[in-house]
Amino acid sequence: MSWQPTLTWQNAQKRAQVLIRIRQFFAERNVVEVETPALSQGTVTDVNLDAFSCDYDFLSDSSPEHSSSLYLQTSPEFHMKRLLASGYGCIFQIAKAFRHEEAGRYHNPEFTMLEWYRLGFDHFELMGEVSELLEAVLGCSEARQVTYQQLFLEQVGLDPLVTTREQLISLITKKNKLSDWLVLEPDIDILLQFVFSEIIEPNIGLGSPCFVYNFPKSQASLAKISPDDKRVAQRFECYYQGVELVNGFNELIDVSNQLQRFHQDNNQRKKLSLIEKPIDKNFISALSHGLPQCSGVALGIDRLIMLALKAEHIEHVVSFPVERS
């Protein structure tokens, strides 16, 4: 193990310039920078996310016999939405986020995230602003926008909103990507996600950023369902040069619907023999009070800087990756 950083002094200066440009971008638009806790009493229930946790003995309602669990944030989303519900205007944050996942070319368990919320925006307006930020930082051309359904039809000739498990397995077989676990996988959503990540994603956003929107409602996360097509959610992602950069939503503001989704996540966790997660009660209270109409987006800063610096690995844009932490 080496004590030295993997981020050179030259790249550290370039990274700092990117952060300055991002802050200038939001200052020009009167979007205010905020800071929220990295530790929380609640966490995400999403089956695809796993948070780090720690024990804390000193909460006012902690039992003398048992510590309370606190969770490192997988994103600052819940805290930022609590700010919005309390009366804040448009806000952004550059924050550390933590996900208990394997480190790789594009991921370190501790990473830097840019998240921002625009009151009164829908997801199309926010996609436009994300595109402007990418152009300002990367000097790239204007982004393409395409629906999830259209992308599947273009790339693999299947309609993801009506396809069957058998059709997906057949496609995966033809692409020579079938493995034992896929043969046994009953969940169409997991198969769709596999096709998207392994077959479609490598072919999009190569020359210019590509926004994919209207994901299936089963992959809605915290996004509203589209009033025009109840099969899809008003969620988008952005890909550029082989990198997934952005995940955004026209935000769900209905508390009962949100609670239902959290419970569905935990039911799915139970089926998969995963640990159920505590629902963030403070976030639910904020939604009950009232979250204004808004759209929000999270962008991976380290990945953005990889593109800006033409770096091949995330360790070249962070000072100490997990293996040297």
Alpha-carbon distance between the two ends: 10 Å
**CATH hierarchy: architecture of the largest domain:** 2-Layer Sandwich
State the domain count. 2
Specify the biggest β-sheet.
8 strands, mixed
Q: What is the CA-based Rg, rounded?
A: 20 Å
CATH class of the largest domain: Alpha Beta
Strand/helix succession = HEEEEHEEHEHHHHEEEHHEH
Q: How would you write the strand order of the largest sheet? A: 1-5-6-11-10-9-8-7
Classified in CATH, the superfamily of the largest domain is Bira Bifunctional Protein, Domain 2
> How large is the count of helical segments?
10
Structural class designation? alpha+beta
Low-confidence stretches: none
Shape summary: globular
Q: Into which percentage range does the β-strand content fall?
A: 15-25%
Count all strands and give the number: 11
Would you tell me which CATH topology of the largest domain applies?
A: BirA Bifunctional Protein, domain 2
- On the 0-100 scale, what is the average pLDDT? 95
Percent helix range: 25-40%
